[in-house]
Specification:
heterodimer; A: mainly alpha; 20 helices; globular; B: rod-shaped
Amino acid sequence: MAGIHPIDIAIVAVYLAAMIVIGLWTSRTIKTQKDFFVAGRRLNKFLQMMINFGTGTHTDQAVIVASKSYDVGISGIWYQWLWMFVTPFYWMIAPIIRRMRCITCADFFHERFSKGFSIYYTFVGIMILIVDMGIMLLATGITVEGMTKGAIPSGVAVLGMTFLFVFYGVLGGLLAAAITDSIQGVLTIVLSFLLIPFLLHAVGGMSGLHEKLAPEMFDLIAAKGTKGLTLFWIIMVSFNGLVGIVVQPHTMPTVGAGRTEMDCRVGQCFGNYLKRFCTVAWAFIGIGCVALYSLDDLGGDSELAFGRAVTDLLPVGFSGLMLISILAAVMSTCDALMVSGSALFTNHVYAKFLKPGRTESHYIRVGRLVSIVIVACGLAFAYCIPNAKTGLEIFWRANAIVGIAFWLGIMWRRTNVFGAWASSVVALLVWAAIHIRHTLYPDLPVIPLQWEMLYYLSAGFLAGIVGSWLTRPPDTEQTRALFDKLATPVTEDETD
Amino acid sequence: MDNEKAHNKQYTGLILVDLLHLDYRHFFSRYKVDLLGFTAALALALFIVFGTWLILQIGA
């Protein structure tokens, strides 16, 4: 096959076979919904770290960070490092999620606010997952096509990846995802850094890189007025990330799958730090590519920089490993997203309204079927979106708009269902108003992303607080039951 | 849920829950795990950023 050496093909084939075996093996352990959706809450620290790392790490991020660093310099790293100063908060968020003893975030919204708000979250959550999955599949398909110089077309790559992660994910649920994430996580870390020595050799080392690039390309935080990412951008996008992370549909199943609170804390916090390390490598690849390729060399699209560097710089065998790493990263995320989306629908719509009171095995079968439908929607979406960066920014906003209600709900007992609705609806309206303004008045200056976030987050929090204050307090018993759960540590033998 | 049991767990308070009713009298002992872990994680974040900045200075 043109563009790929037979050794690379063999490496990829062995890897794919191993993933299928893992799916079949773990499927034997699935007996209850908890087994399927939260791996029976029996993941230890290592598996917790790996599933958090694997779920949060995918190819489009490497492509976007490398591309942004190519465009604006090393400050492009903040497109992923926006989570850097959010990550310490994961240490405090993880036990909250575990103590909720919920399978999905919709369970929490049901207990804290109302059935209506949990259904609203269910549908928003599933849409977020579909968008996320679509972006990842598309970006990865394009990268694979670029790496193999067209030998594997984007569409074929997307379908192949989808078949594989659906296969082992549908069979083995979150446990299969955790085990495959462990393998894929290690591969991703190793291979992200593997390219660096080859890249530095090609550009004449760090001193060669400094000679070839303008000094401002090395500024971690760009000065105001330059094209890089400023401190205000970093602060706002990080805060927005903190608000939104808790309601990302895969967060509760993956974080809550830990055996103990400490497993959850270590897993979510340090699993994500592994990703921050990998981000350094991606950004270096981006600025290294500036020294190697002009924008014309990349066909005018800096998103091709990552794939181009992989193809040109890595020797035979390593390219196959890199291809695996890229496939692995996206598949490990997509399988966890698929299981999370399935958990949302099965528990909150199907089991509550359509077919209540059925057996566990019935719900697991439905969960598997829904998984496939969600992936089909993600696949369809992959062919409809314009580019990965725009999709990512939409994803950030959508999470935060629902996340405000989550934070108000755990931080302030007085928050009621009216406040929850007010926070989400007002934030959504502000976001919509800004975009309608951009559409209707294209001549007016565009409101930058960081200011847009400041506006809709402030409006959302304010609406939630004022709305709760002006209306009847929430039911005391219902609120106390939830806060008592949050005050009760999870014991080692507890699997709820 | 056993309320007594919940309130007897002195050292496992969660600092982000119910902000208006934090236990200020036993703040450091009650939220020890949250505070120590957060500080360590924040230090790690600063270390990664500073380390990256240092690497960028090589060869300048």
